[in-house]
From TrEMBL:
It comes from Oleispira antarctica RB-8. Residues 130-228 form the OmpR/PhoB-type domain. Keywords: Activator, Cytoplasm, DNA-binding, Phosphate transport, Phosphoprotein, Transcription, Transcription regulation, Transport, Two-component regulatory system. The modification 4-aspartylphosphate is found at D54. The gene is phoB. This is Phosphate regulon transcriptional regulatory protein PhoB. It comes from the Bacteria. InterPro entries: CheY-like_superfamily, OmpR/PhoB-type_DNA-bd, Sig_transdc_resp-reg_C-effctor, Sig_transdc_resp-reg_PhoB, Sig_transdc_resp-reg_receiver, WalR-like, WH-like_DNA-bd_sf. Residues 130-228 bind DNA.
Length: 234
């Protein structure tokens, strides 16, 4: 029985063939795209379980592909592993800011690649199939689109739910208004940056039971951060 479906986005023929052969031998379902533009259309037509994308490609880089997919609601949750010769910390930060899930630095062994793939798929499976996300006494049921605090269901609008879900999946990191617009609202929606502030206020009000609103912190001049570190319970 085949495992997950993987889209390999690599413009170098020899590297692509090596990767595809290794994945097929491990019983993955594999498709290949020669560049980011082709890959983007393939993902829209038939979303894979995971994407392996080279950083440096003509027409659309792996980073550009990741940013585009993470802005779309239907593709935002697809895990992406970036294949790159870049190993500097600043380059890695750029990748993670674009929403990628992991890095594999060239040259790499098929064994390392398969281990990274299994780890990322395992994390993604736990996120979508687990009992929910929990911080403090707050529980988010992603499949039922419901949230509760200390057993009491709280009322959240669609945007507030997506904001809270994003924050709980990405704790202890500062996100600017622009980044939140990209990741929560999506790339096809054009609203003012200050709209984020309005929905943050609504979300804080909704989760104010037992002081959970203190988890959403304003970082002056930078944006917002979700963290339980400074959470103050009554």
């Amino acid at each position: 029985m085949a495992l997950a479906s993987i889209l390999v986005v690599e413009d170098e023929q020899a590297i692509a063939e090596m990767i595809v052969t290794s994945l097929e031998m491990a019983d993955y379902q594999v498709k290949r795209a020669a560049n980011g533009q082709i890959a983007y259309q393939m993902v829209l037509d038939n979303a894979p379980d995971l994407i392996l994308a080279d950083w440096m490609m003509p027409m659309m880089t792996g980073i550009e592909l990741a940013k585009r997919l993470k802005r779309e609601e239907n593709t935002a949750e697809i895990p992406i592993i970036l294949l790159t010769a870049k190993s500097d910390e600043d380059d890695k930060i750029k990748g993670f800011d674009a929403g990628i899930d992991d890095y594999v630095v060239k040259p790499f062994s098929p064994r390392e690649l398969l281990a990274r793939i299994k780890a990322v798929l395992r994390r993604g499976h736990a996120d979508t199939e687990g009992k929910g996300l929990t911080v403090g006494q707050m529980v988010l049921d992603r499949s039922a689109k419901k949230a509760s605090i200390a057993g009491d269901v709280i009322s959240l609008g669609p945007i507030e739910f997506r904001l809270l879900e994003f924050f709980m999946l990405h704790p202890d990191r500062v996100y600017s208004r622009e980044q939140l617009l990209d990741r929560v609202w999506g790339g096809n929606v054009y609203v003012e940056d200050r709209t984020v502030d309005v929905h943050i206020r609504r979300l804080r009000k909704s989760i104010s039971i037992l002081n959970h609103e203190t988890m959403i912190q304003t970082v002056r001049g930078a944006g917002y951060r979700f963290s339980a570190e400074n959470f103050t319970s009554e």
